[in-house]
Amino acid sequence: MRVGVLTGGGDCPGLNAVIRAVTKSLIHHGQCEVIGIEDGFAGLMHEQPRVRPLTWRDVSGILHTGGTLLGTSNSANPLRDEATTQLVARNVAAQGLDVLVVIGGDGTMSLAHGLHQRIGLPCVGVPKTIDNDIAFCERSFGFDTAVATATEGLRRMDSTAFSHHRVMIVETMGRHAGWIALESGLAAGADIILLPEIDFRLESVIERCRQRENDQRYTVICMGEGAKERGTDLTVRQVVQGSPDPVRLGGVAHVLRERLQPHLESEVRATVLGHLQRGGDPTPFDRVLATRFGHHAAQLLLQGIHGRMVTLQCGAITSVPMSDVAHVQRTIPLDDALLVTARDIGVCLGE
Ligand code: F6P
User: Which residue, by CA, sits nearest to atom 14 of ligand 1?
Assistant: First the structure.
């Protein structure tokens, strides 16, 4: 069996651990060749496809490293027109690929599902995102690392907020899901946590900051990039034309800073943590989860099972149909236990 492996969408700590586990499991089993496809689906969208065999040695020593050794792309769309789809089909046939392992987010899963429908290419999916927002997956690898980085950023802001008696707003990634903001905010002891799932009232944020001005004299606000004030629109940094995932959020912390400053005596400052949260070495938890995912993907292939995405449910590795995952996001349910905990320990959620 010749198995193609690609990583699509934004990079994420743990991608190399998945590539390593898929490759080693298939080579260890025997009778399998693994072909790495460069830059996600883009590698199959050239007349000369960008592919290379992956050997045991190629994937050794990469378990702990960030990024993806194959490269990635979040703008390559193999379904963008008929000619592109047919080019991909020819490249897959010329390379003798029997099946693809696609490691990516919901956008990559829907492209893989579409390719299967259009050209009959069997795929197995492995969910990846720091945002932890993939449907039917209670934990994606990369999330633990992003939360650790965001938590450290918040703690660093805490000491400078304390020293200068400031209000510090820290913006985390996560798109329309607030998981990174909620977990890092709780882990860092943020005073206010603002999430995309709960449109905040400016008055309630002002009120909490004023209380603290008279008491502790500093405030740390953790804010997901998709958070917004009640009755306003999302803050969008840019729209990338032609991308299957065109909207890039970011900058809402600066908007909130301008809205808050006139109402407070303390200086208000904003920091966007940005891609710091996506880079760097995966935590041990993410290395193990990514290895379990990659190993399970290889086992599905060896059993001839396709069209499914590996996932984590109730702590166990299993799989779900890729079609169920495409275009669905897992945001924080309003009755989530962590939200209840946050409220009960006095964190302001801007309600
Ligand atoms: O989905 C992962 C993520 O890091 C989001 O949290 C963020 O909004 C987005 O990707 C940023 O994408 P890009 O690197 O293309 O700007």
Answer: 10
